[in-house]
Amino acid sequence: MFFLLIDLLVIGIVIQAVKYKKVRNKIFSHKEVEKAAREQVKKMKITNPVITCEYCGSQIDTSREEVCSHCGAPYDVSADWRARFNVSDSFIEESADEVISSQESKVKEETANMLKKIKRRIITLCVLVFGLLILGAIILVTDGPGNYRGNEKLNDKNGYRNCVDVDYKINGDGAIYDDGNVKITVAGIYYEENSTRRYNGLMRSNGKIAFTVENSHDENIYVSISCNSINEISSDTNYISMYGRFKKNKTVTIYEQIYQFPGEGISELYFDRIYVSCDDYKHGEENVEGIKLTTTHDETCEYDLDGYKMIYTNDKFDVYAKYTDESYDEGYILYINNKSDKAFRITTKDILVDDASCDIYGIRDLYIPSGYKLKTSTLYSSEDTFENLKSKEVKMSIAFNCKEDPSLDFSTGYIELN
C-alpha cells in the first residue's frame, strides 16, 4: 500500500511539473509580441476600411470611392485613415509591453498555484518515505513476528491437514540436539489415514513430525534440520527438511511434513544434518550429523532389485546399476548398499560416454548410515553425447567419504554401468 501511494505521488509530481513548464512557456518575449503586432498592422494596411468624412460626417467606402460621394471632399488626410496606415513604433512597443505585463501576471498566478501543489506532494512523499524507513528500522530492530517461527497447530498449515497420532511411541525423550543453550526434541509423529499408496516400489503415506525448539540462549537463533534416511532406506531427496529462526529465551513447537512417509510406519530415522547458529554469528555454529531416533514400531523396507546389475563390490559397499528411459530423461539408477559399520557420504562425479566426459545430474555429499541402502533418482546429463546409451560404453566414478574415520575414504574409479 505504501509503495502504491509513493508511485501515485511521484506520478502526480511529474504531471504537475510538466503542466508548470507548459504554463511558463506561455510568456512571450517582447520581440515575439512586437513581431505579432507588426503582422497585424500589415493586415490592417492591406484592408481598405470604411471611414467617416471629416467634413460632412458621411461614410466613405474607400474600396470604391476616392472622394466623399456626399460632399466631394478628399479623405487622404483622415485621422482614422492615417491611424491605420501610419502606426508608430512607439505605439507597437507600448502595446507589446501591455500584452506581456498582462500575460506575466496571469502566468505568475497559475504557476504559484502549481508550485504549491508540487510542494505539498513532495512533502507528503518525503513523509511517506521517511515513515517507511522508520517502519523498516523498527521491524529490523524488534525482529517482527513474521520472521520467527512460533507455536503451530498440527493441521493448520504445511501441507497435510488431516493428520493423527501414529499408534507407536518415540523411544527415550526424543532429544536430537542439546548444546546447553539450545535443545531440539522430536515431540511426535503423525500420519494421514487412508493416504497409503505404492510409490517407487515402496508403500508411502502422508505424514508430519513435531519439533520442540527450546532456545534458552540470550540471542535469536537459526536452525536447519534434514533427514534423508528412514527404516534402513536412504534417499537422494530429504524426507524431512526444516529451517527457521527462533526468538531468544522461548520454547515453541512446530510441525514439518515427512515426504514419502513409510506406509508401514517409522521404526527409525537418521538426521544427517542439524545446523544451529546465532543471528550475529558471534558464537559460531554447531553442525552435527548422524543423529539416530528410534520408535517402538518394528519395520524395515526392502527394494526389489529386479533388472539391476552389480557393477562394484568391496568389503564396505555393493553398487548396482539399472538403465532406464521410462522418465523424461534417459539415464541410470544406482542402488548402493552400505555393509560397513560406519556412515559415509557419497558423491557421483562425472560420467564417461565412449570416453567423452559428461557432467551429470547426480548425487552430491549424500549421507548413508551403516546398514542402509540407497536407491537414487535417474542420473542423467543434458549434453548431446548422453543419448542412445545402450549402444555406448558408459562409465562412472563414485567417491565415498567417512567423516568419523577419513582413513576409510575411497573411490571406485571409473566403473562400467552397462
From TrEMBL:
The keyword Transmembrane helix applies. The chain crosses the membrane at residues 122-141. Keywords: Membrane, Plasmid, Transmembrane, Transmembrane helix. It comes from the Bacteria. This is Uncharacterized protein. It comes from Butyrivibrio fibrisolvens.
